[in-house]
Amino acid sequence: MTSSTELAVVVLAAGQGTRMRSRIPKILHAVGGRPLVGHVLDTAASLDPSRIVVVVRHERDLVAETITELAPGVVIVDQDEVPGTGRAVEAALGALEGFAGDVLVLSGDVPLLESHTLAELVETHRSGGTAVTLLTARVDEPHGYGRVIRDEVAGVHRIVEQKDATADEAAVTEINVGVYVFRAAPLREHLARVGTANAQGEKYLTDVVALLREAELGVAASVTPDAAAALGVNDRIQLSEAGRTLNARTVQHWQREGVTVIDPATTWIDVTAVLAPDVTLLPNTHVRGATVIAAGATVGPDTSLVDCEVGEDATITRTDATLAVVGPGATVGPFAYLRANARVGVNGKVGTFVEVKNSSIGEGSKVPHLSYIGDTEIGRHVNLGAGAITANYDDITKHRTVIGDEVHSGSHNVFVAPVTIGDGAKTGAGAVIRKDVPAGALALSVAPQRNIEGWVEKNRPGTGAADVAARARGEQEARDGS
Length: 482
Fold this sequence. Notes:
- The protein contains eleven helices and 38 strands.
- The strands form seven sheets. Strands 12, 13, 15, 16, 18, 19, 21, 22, 24, 25, 27 and 29 form a twelve-stranded parallel beta sheet that branches. A nine-stranded parallel beta sheet has the order 14-17-20-23-26-28-30-32-35, with no helix packed on it.
- Strand 2 and strand 3 form a beta hairpin.
- It has two domains: 224 residues, Alpha-Beta Complex (Spore Coat Polysaccharide Biosynthesis Protein SpsA, Chain A); 187 residues, UDP N-Acetylglucosamine Acyltransferase, domain 1, CATH 2.160.10.10.
- The protein is of the alpha/beta class.
- Helix 6 crosses helix 7.
C-alpha cells in the first residue's frame, strides 16, 4: 500500500478462547500449517504498515514466543486485568505514542481475511474521511456476534453485543466482524471515555463507534462479499471449516501455477509448501510444512510429506516421509517410511516396506524390499537384497555402516555396525557381516547344514506334520526298495 498517511496494525491476541476447550491458546491452533495468528500477521505485513502491535494476555509467554518466531519485528504489549477489546486497543495505543496515522485493528483468530480486502477497507476509510470504518458481513445465523445497528439513512449508529441486544436488535443479520480502521487521534480521545457498564463487565471497543457517531466525526461500514472469510474461529468446528476453506484456496492457487491435483477434496497442501509446474499430486496426499517439490515429480496416492525436498521427475507412492530428501528421478514406495535425514540420490530406489533413517542412498542405488537402513552411507549403484538390515544400535550407542560403490548383497543380510563394505564387494545370502569387507571380496557367514532324521515324528507325535512326514518316509522307502 502507498499513502501519505501512515498505517499501524493492532492485532488482538489476548483472549483465552474457552470454546476451543483446549490447553493450547486458541490463536496458536493451526490451519494450513501455520497458527491462526500467523496468518493474520502475514496478512498484516503484506499491507506494509509502519508498525505492527500485538496485544497478549492469556498464556502470555507461550503466545509471545510464538509471535516473535513468526514475525520478529512486531511489538508485543500486555493487556492488564481489565477485560475487553477496548482495553486491549488502549494498551496497543500506549506502544503507538506519537503515531498520528490510521490504526487497523484485526483479531488474531480470523485467518482467512485476504490482504486485498483489508487494503480496500483502508482505502474506503481514507477516501471517506471518516473517523472509523468497520468491516461488516451479512449472515443467516448471526447469534454470538455484535449486531450493526443502522439508522433510517443506512448510516452506522452503533454496535450491540449479543448479550446486550434486545429481541429486535438480535434479529439484525448484519454483524461486526471485529475489523476496524480508526484515525488515531479520535480513537485515543474517545476510547478513554468508554467504561465497563455492560452485561459482561468489559471495556468494549465497539462503544467507541457510538461515541464517534455522537461527536459527528464520521462512522462508515463496508460490507464484505465474503462473509465466511471474515468470521473468526471460536471452536473446533469452525477451526476445521477454516482449514477446509484455506486448503481449497491453496490447492486452487497451485493448480493455477501448473500443478495437477487429481482429487482436490483429499489433497492437503500447507501454505508453507512450494510446488513447481508439472508436479502431479494423486489422491489422499498431504504436502506439509516447508516441503518443496520440483517439476515433473509425482506424489501419491496415500502419501504424507513433512518438511521434505523432492527432486525433478521423482516418484513417491504410498509413503510417509519427514525431513527427507528425494533426488531427481528417484522412486520411493509403495509403503516406505523415510525418517529424518533420509537422503535418496539421483535415480535411487527405496522400495516396498523399507524404512530409512539418518542415511544416504547414493546415485542409482536400490534398497528394494523389506529392509531397515539406519545411520548408513550407501555409495553409487548398490543393490541390497531383500531383508537387508543395518544394525546400528548396540543398546548404548548408534553406530554407522558404510557401503561402497557397486556393492551387491544377498538376501537377508545383517550389517552389524560399525562396519565398512568396500567398493565392488559381494555378500552371500543370509550373511551376518560383523567385520569390514575389503573391496572386491565375497563375504559369507556359512555354517554346515545339519538334518536330524525323524525329529518331527519323535518330538511331535500325532500332529499333522508327523503324519505326513511318516507317510512321505514310507513312500520314499517303498521307492528305494523297488
